[in-house]
Amino acid sequence: MNKIIIIGTGLAGYTLARELRKRDQESELILITHDDGSSYSKPMLSNALDKGKTADTLVMADATKMAIDLNAEIWTQTTVSAIDADKHQIQCDRGAVDYTHLVMAIGASPIKIPFAGDGADQILTVNSLQDYGVFRQALVAGRRVLIIGAGLIGCEFANDLSSQAITVDLVDLAPQALGRLLPAAAAQELQQRLADAGVNWHLDNAVAAVHQAGKALSVELKDGSRVETDIVLSAIGLRANTTMAKDAGLDTERGIKVDRYLQTSAQDIYALGDCAQVEDLHLPFVMPLMNAARALAATLSGDKTTVNYPAMPVVVKTPLYPIVVCPSPRPVDGSWEEDVSDQGVRAWYKDEQGKRIGFALTGELVKERMAMSKEIPDWLG
Ligand SMILES: Cc1cc2nc3c(=O)[nH]c(=O)nc-3n(C[C@H](O)[C@H](O)[C@H](O)COP(=O)(O)OP(=O)(O)OC[C@H]3O[C@@H](n4cnc5c(N)ncnc54)[C@H](O)[C@@H]3O)c2cc1C
Q1: How far does the centroid of ligand 1 lie from the alpha carbon of residue 216, in Å?
Q2: Span 176-196, pLDDT tens digits
Q3: Which residues have C-beta within 8 Å of that of residue 280, sequence separation ≥ 6?
């Protein structure tokens, strides 16, 4: 019998399983995860406070319910340690297990910088429900948070925390929030709105060291200043989990390399979600993994289908200043053309030939995102 194993029960693993079951109720399906297998929406981690949600109430279904709904076995608290592509076999805590088709949906891990100081080991990151539980527990004792990184996730947390009267310091190397995702005028307005809500900005700056200061932390910045805080949250980006694939001899770059069928360099092994790089694109967002899951479900049920990526804008969850960004997925030299009005900012990013390859919208203009997306060439057509 066809036996499909999916490693990972994040949005990628569960979305694929759901899509697969729409087409195929017969194949044996096993999902394996080293966490507890709770189904939740990861994007909600950075606006959960404002929405009145905790790590527990973010759970939409536990692993037992998911197993019933998906007509699948779900092995929780189980780590897959190795893949033998020739034998079509994985090694996990339960021993060796054979597969017909294997899917890696194993996500990415927060990038960690080894900062100096005796408080550096207390820096938190949030990339899972479990991490979020630890962060919320820390917020019970301390109401001051210093965030490293003013990218999408850093700005979203800054908005969410400040909505609950938590003191936020936001540090970034760049001179503006959201780096290359936003033109200057829009970034300036976002910074102003967050500052009005109490966020202290430390742009063009960096964390040099984190020191213990009694029960609190004292963060030393590159410009010589110090910030007293209770929690340091690092939001400087993620790196795809590629070690297991590399050890199995699969091709990897910024992610586990897959073709348009989501197939890795090994027969019958596929990858999608934050761990995967589709052709040259590593896009750790929800829309790309949804598209990938639909295509892969079709392929695994016998209808070979390639994944297509239209331009996929991302909604930045900063209700203090609504923003939608649609950056070019590939590094391209170009410049912003901004149109600033009372309604917000409408900006096109144009390449050196003047072709529109990205955009940003703010304020009331975010409603134009679908119309503007249509003017951007497909990312993978
Ligand atoms: C705070 C935050 C906010 C975000 N907001 C947005 C947003 O607004 N819009 C957007 O598009 N994207 C957003 N993202 C990104 C989006 O959430 C991710 O792209 C998506 O959730 C990734 O899902 P995944 O299943 O690929 O990975 P993960 O959710 O990381 O799942 C990986 C799974 O693999 C399992 N696993 C890993 N290794 C092993 C192993 N060896 N053995 C067994 N199991 C293993 C883990 O237990 C887990 O179940 C956000 C991300 C964060 C962190």
Answers
A1: 30
A2: 999 989 999 999 999 999 999
A3: 330
